[in-house]
Amino acid sequence: MSAEFDITETLDVKGASCPMPVVKTKSAIDDLAEGEILEVLATDPGSMSDIDGWASGTDGVELVDQEEGDDVYTHYIRKTE
Amino acid sequence: MSTDTPDATVDDTPSRAELAARVDELEDALAEATDQDDTKKMSIISTKGTLDMAYPPLILASTAAAFDYEVTVFHTFWGLDILHEERSKSLKLSSVGNPNMPVPNAVAALPGMDRVTTKMMEKKIADNDTATIEELIETSLDMGVEFQACQMTIDLMDYDEADFYDGVTTGVGAATALQDMADADIQLLV
């Protein structure tokens, strides 16, 4: 989808609603190494605000980008520590 | 002019070495105070056991855990049913007392109506892929949330410790909850 950064893992939380996109993102990011990027595919419109809020309120993660598609919201999160 | 000015020969100015020692001492104290607790904490008191009221504490607990908060949820009175493995799977939605329900209270009070509204809500939850109560509890436990079952309520309701989900803390009371609240950055009563 995006060629600007290397995606290490993709997490598919399509269909899941609050709080699962954030909660599963957290679990998935815990399994990554520093510098790696997680791609999250969600259909929950609230995930745009929630993943953003989670990333800014949590140490060791950085929201790289968010894309709003027709049905799918894609989030890219880098593990920073 | 008066010559009886006070004698100023007593020098109580600390020496350089004394000041340096005092700075070291204060730096150590500061390091200890700040180092001690940079973990964020949340304490929730969960008191209600209807299907709708079981969600907020669990959603907030699992989300706070995702934010690396140390979370404790103290379940008391009807809130204890959320931790009861069997009862948590059949929590009910009350059809009376909620003006947002699609049926008037006079009809809602008829026998069997709670079952109807609960079924309706359960269907909405399933259709919308909203997490079930069981799923939220298991997820929260996996993420390190501490669920506490109020001992007084366990005794009052005549529950057995084995009735609760694995990993639930029993044998705790109000003093434990109060201590958690005092230490927490966020305290909520649900």
Automatic annotation (TrEMBL), chain A:
Q: Domain of life, per the record?
A: Archaea
Does Magnesium appear among the keywords? no
Which residues are in the UPF0033 domain?
11-35
Instruction: Identify the keywords attached in UniProt to this record, alphabetized.
Output: Transferase
| GO MF assignments | transferase activity
Against Gene3D superfamilies, the record matches this protein to: TusA-like domain
InterPro entries tied to this protein? TusA-like, TusA-like_sf
The entry's family comment says: Belongs to the sulfur carrier protein TusA family.
Task: Supply the PANTHER family for this chain.
Answer: SULFUR CARRIER PROTEIN YEDF-RELATED (PTHR33279)
Task: Please give the name of this protein.
Answer: TusA-related sulfurtransferase
Provide the species name: Halobaculum gomorrense
Automatic annotation (TrEMBL), chain B:
Fetch the InterPro entries from UniProt. Answer: DsrE2-like, DsrEFH-like
**PANTHER family of this UniProt entry?**
CONSERVED WITHIN P. AEROPHILUM, PEROXIREDOXIN FAMILY PROTEIN
Would you tell me the protein name for this molecule? Peroxiredoxin family protein
Lineage start: Archaea, Methanobacteriati, Methanobacteriota, Stenosarchaea group, Halobacteria
